[in-house]
Amino acid sequence: MTDTADSWYWERNWNDYRRGSTRVRVRWEGGEAEALIFDEGVPITSRAFLDRLPIEVPVVHVAWSGEMVMSTGGHALGVAEQENRVRLVRVGDLAFDPKFDEITLTYGTAEARLPDGPNVLTVFGQIVEGVDAAAAFGRRTRFEGMQTIIFEALDAFDEERQANV
Length: 165
Fold this sequence. Notes:
The chain has 165 residues and is of the alpha+beta class. 27% of the residues lie in helices and 36% in strands. A hairpin with a 2-residue loop joins β7 (113-114) and β8 (117-118).
């Protein structure tokens, strides 16, 4: 078997959806990052998420999943089906669980889990700038408790910043 024949399945199922061109600002008290939304590879969830910006999301640490924070309440995006089913999320992944309307941010080694066993998520974006700052935020959340993340369009954030200068 060729290398291509051996890897096509994995590439299609675990990397092919990681395509997009829209970037959003991810803010929290004391920091920020920039995320790429996979609007080409995960169009339904991405569009639903982008249509609701800005989104303010209270988050808690989910120690049973590893280095991940998740929303404390439902954030209905109007998406009932999963576009990809990811259990082993990557550093910086933004994901949505349509079963519980939860948004997650992975900042280190993590596995999508519920308190009682494995789970899968729809990964719809990834932090591309400020990964270290997001990791520091995640670690802080584990020990300090609930925090708030704000997702917003880059242009809206830049307009607000310019108005305050």
